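Fill in residues.
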């Protein structure tokens, strides 16, 4: 989100306002109160005598609570206002705003406080695409509350607005309070805003019930391992741990359990890929997220073939929405299954969760789901029987690309031309290989099916052998981004090859070449690995998937490099991501620009990046795991005997790591005497990058 907005959120409910607390949403603007994928307030403007307020200070240090300190403009720098307005907000399924008007002057003041209210009830997709509404709006005053409503056939949404203080003047689009404020006195009211659906009735939000949310956050932080290292890195860990807490989503079928929603503002919903990868990143820090994610996705696993939603038996969903367009099947997300990596990733997480937690009961319960997922990989995923998962959308409403790089133009040849569908991207084949290797272990050790385990091992070995032959580009010494519809190798150099290391599908003799490409100047920006290498026909450092840097992609690549023994390179990537986070106030956005570090000297924001975003916020956690080499071995947590830490980290200690071993502590010694200030860190890094830049220019 932009620095010009203040956001608070809880579950799938979020509120985005300007710094003074006002909401005045225009086309394509994700401002307002959103609940279950629809906007329930598009206008919420507080004024004194009809004049908008100036903001003195605003903060949302707690993700569910915001404060705005405002004054009416005086019109001159020579006169200070005597009236101040404090707006405090707390959000759950709706929100409450506590408004206090203070008179700091020595004389009584007559004040007209006006609140302008409006709601366009825009579906989140309508906000993105600026679409017109098809239903009817209505407004009424009922039981001393203002009701804003929208109806389209049986689909109904309402927003109820009430005040704890009697209103002087009330219409369907504003509330007016005429107040006499004595000297040195204050006036207060609380506005309760409650969103309603045709299926549910919400009770009013109670101001002060934030104590429950605070206790929940405190418990979340207490259960997480403590991390001790350089203060800046600790700040990155803490800030992103809170962002993960903010993005917790509670499925209707499991209201007491949470999983990660994808990100604010566009993706506050269940996303298969995002929830799976974030849960994987968080396993050493919050393993319960993985359990809920696995159960929720298993419940919604595909059972039949449906063209609109691209559902297929065994397939794991991509996205689940509850808005108007989904309800009327004008969008397919009810749920939508158009992702070809979610199904193997589901199996990867299932095994990894058991390795960490020892929760064999869940693995036994989900055995039918695992069998269905593997069947999808072999049959529905491999539609032409060539042994690879490929995708081609079945409806124009669906996604053209069904890999993690799901923008329409992400799969390009070296010359910049678009690859024809169906497409088989390389990293999905790596996920499928990893899934079969992992399920062979589960089949042997937990499901007690030795014959099936042996079959899966043979299939995995065959896939690895074929893949290294069919996808390798000998003259360029890297793996093709994909095979297109004519089985041509899509020959652009992209970060996908790094995720192949994570899955383990790369043969050992090819790993050095892959490593050299990843860590070379065309791919490594100094902050992270570019999604597409500089010099490719489609490269653009500010194109969503064709040259930007994605933190989650980088730490997965770092984990892959460490798997193949390149621990120093892995450390350099993790360091770059932590350093970028420092420039983003210790948070990690979904994506940032791929400019060379020496060119900009700070990471450049991507214009529409989600913040917070789940798999970005989980990136420091997987980075810490990679630095320490944390791996479960039976009932013991092991670590790398020779960890390589960033030069400025100092000693890295993680205490209280939960798992099947109970709690464990891991310490990697660093040079504490070399710990530097943030300024010194950046100066040292820039010196190193300047040397690399000079070498690059000389070459």
């Amino acid at each position: 989100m932009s620095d010009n907005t203040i956001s608070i959120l809880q579950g799938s409910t979020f509120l985005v306002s300007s710094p003074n607390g006002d909401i005045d949403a225009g086309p394509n603007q994700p401002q307002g109160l959103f609940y279950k994928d629809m906007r329930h307030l598009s206008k919420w403007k507080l004024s004194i005598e009809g004049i908008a307020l100036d903001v003195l200070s605003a903060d949302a240090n707690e993700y569910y609570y915001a404060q705005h300190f405002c004054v009416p403009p005086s019109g001159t720098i020579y006169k200070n206002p005597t009236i101040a307005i404090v707006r405090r907000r707390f959000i759950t399924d709706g929100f409450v705003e506590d408004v206090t008007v203070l008179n700091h002057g020595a004389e009584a003041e007559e004040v007209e406080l006006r609140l302008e209210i409006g709601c366009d009830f825009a579906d989140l997709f309508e906000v993105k695409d600026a679409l017109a509404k098809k239903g009817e709006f209505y407004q009424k005053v009922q039981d001393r509350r203002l009701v804003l409503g929208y109806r389209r056939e049986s689909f109904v949404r309402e927003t109820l607005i009430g005040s704890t203080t009697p209103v002087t003047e009330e219409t369907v689009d504003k509330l007016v309070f005429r107040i006499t404020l004595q000297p040195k006195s204050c006036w207060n009211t609380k506005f309760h805003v409650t969103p309603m659906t045709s299926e549910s009735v919400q009770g009013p939000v109670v101001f002060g019930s934030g104590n429950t949310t605070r206790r929940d956050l405190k418990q979340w932080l207490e259960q997480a391992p403590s991390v001790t290292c350089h203060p800046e890195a600790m700040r990155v860990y803490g800030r992103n741990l809170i962002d993960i807490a903010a993005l917790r989503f509670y499925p209707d079928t499991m209201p007491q359990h949470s999983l990660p929603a994808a990100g604010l503002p566009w993706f506050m919903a269940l996303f298969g890929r995002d929830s799976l990868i974030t849960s994987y990143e968080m396993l050493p820090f919050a393993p319960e997220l993985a359990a809920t994610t696995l159960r929720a996705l298993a419940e919604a696993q595909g059972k039949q073939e449906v063209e609109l939603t691209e559902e297929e038996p065994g397939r794991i969903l991509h996205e689940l929405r509850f808005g108007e367009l989904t309800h009327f099947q004008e969008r397919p997300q009810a749920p939508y299954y158009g992702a070809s990596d979610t199904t193997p990733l589901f199996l990867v997480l299932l095994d990894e969760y058991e390795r960490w937690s020892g929760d064999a009961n869940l693995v036994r319960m989900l055995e039918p789901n695992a069998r269905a997922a593997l069947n999808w990989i072999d049959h529905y995923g491999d539609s032409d029987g060539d042994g690879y998962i490929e995708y081609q959308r079945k409806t124009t409403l669906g996604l053209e690309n069904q890999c993690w790089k799901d923008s329409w133009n992400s799969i390009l040849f070296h010359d910049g031309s678009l690859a024809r569908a169906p497409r088989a991207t390389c990293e999905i084949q790596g996920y499928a290989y990893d899934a079969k290797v992992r399920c062979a272990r589960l089949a042997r050790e937990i499901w007690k099916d030795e014959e099936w385990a042996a079959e899966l091992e043979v299939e995995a070995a065959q896939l690895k052998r074929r893949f290294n032959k069919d996808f390798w580009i000998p003259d360029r010494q890297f793996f093709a981004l994909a095979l297109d519809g004519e089985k041509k190798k899509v020959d652009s150099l992209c970060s996908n090859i790094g995720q192949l290391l994570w899955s383990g599908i790369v043969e050992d003799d090819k790993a050095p070449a892959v490593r050299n490409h990843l860590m070379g100047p065309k791919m490594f920006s100094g902050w992270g690995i570019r999604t597409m290498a500089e010099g490719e026909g489609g490269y653009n450092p500010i194109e969503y998937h064709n040259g930007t840097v994605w933190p989650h992609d980088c730490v997965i690549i770092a984990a892959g490099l460490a798997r193949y023994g390149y621990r120093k390179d892995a450390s350099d990537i993790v360091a770059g991501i932590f350093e970028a986070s420092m420039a983003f106030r210790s948070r990690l956005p979904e994506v940032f620009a791929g400019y060379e570090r020496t060119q900009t000297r700070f990471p450049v924001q991507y214009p529409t990046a989600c913040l917070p975003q789940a798999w970005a916020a989980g990136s420091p956690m997987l980075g810490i795991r990679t630095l320490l080499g944390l791996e479960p071995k039976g009932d013991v947590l092991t670590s790398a005997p020779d960890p390589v830490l960033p030069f400025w980290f100092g000693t890295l200690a993680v205490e209280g790591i939960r798992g099947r071993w109970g709690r464990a502590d891991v310490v990697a010694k660093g040079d504490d005497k070399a710990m530097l200030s943030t300024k010194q860190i950046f100066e040292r890094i820039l010196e190193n990058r300047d040397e690399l830049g000079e070498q690059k220019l000389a070459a």
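The chain has a mean pLDDT of 93.
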